[in-house]
Amino acid sequence: MEHQLIPISIEDSFTFSCTPGISCFNECCRDLNQFLTPYDILRLRKRLDISSTEFLSRYTTQHTGPETGLPIVRLREDPTSGNKCPFVTEKGCSVYEDRPSSCRAYPIIRVVSRNRESGILSEHFALIKEPHCRGHEQRYQQTVREWIHNQGLAIYNEMNDMLMEIISLKNQRFPGPLDFISLRHFQMACYDLDSFREQVFHQQIKNVSEFDPQLIQNALKSDTDLLKLSLKWLKFKLFGTKD
Ligand code: SF4
Ligand code: SF4
Fold it and tell me: Is the CB of 18 under 6 A from ligand 1?
């Protein structure tokens, strides 16, 4: 049986549960094609207590997306262990509280589209059923909304939507590859937050001071706010807009 993708609305219920006793435990943590979002990287590097620069070099690979022309970061699998995720252990996920958004959301897929005229984002969901996953045979029932809440996805979705807006604007305004400088800005603002912090607070990035002073103050204390600031800065650098 091939995998199935079943459209589902946010108030619809589905039956699913994933617990350590299940026969397929850890099956989904190998043969990865795990893309990482900026917020995934922020959470994982904090969890591991290393810099974003070190995290990127130790745990990821990067390539340019064929459709967007933008840098994409993937978790590097371990080829000596059947392409397992570097964070999986016999007891399960060693970074569970900070696991990436796609691991949290599974078996729900969230797709966001942006209206070209109004700029309003709308979200759509699908339930993925794969033959190896026995979680669908469990009796625990919840709505998609409850799943999002229970998996702590709200902040991931909020941050991922900020990135999605930038990607969508880039595709509309500059189809094809970005120039070298813009690519460097994108890579730093999205993925290498510690380099962005260093450059901002050593004043190598000048126009950050034009942003909301409260956000800048907050960014001194919180990495999430620093990422919000870096994404706003990137939007300004690429498109000249602060909204
Ligand atoms: S981060 Fe955790 S849940 Fe996600 S693939 Fe790796 S071990 Fe599995
Ligand atoms: S139930 Fe599905 S998500 Fe959970 S361990 Fe098994 S394969 Fe992975």
Answer: no
Written as one string, the DSSP assignment of 163-178 is HHHHHHHHHHHS-SPP
**Ligand 1 geometric centre to CA of 54 (Å):** 19
**Angle in degrees, CA 155, 112, 24, rounded to 5:** 70
Contacts of 27 (CB under 8 A, 6+ apart): 132, 133
Q: Is 29 in the pocket of ligand 1 (CB under 6 A)?
A: yes
24 Cα–ligand 2 center, Å = 6
> Which tens digits make up the pLDDT trace of 31-59?
778 899 999 999 999 999 999 999 999 99
Q: Which of 64, 58, 232 is nearest to 159 (CA)?
A: 232
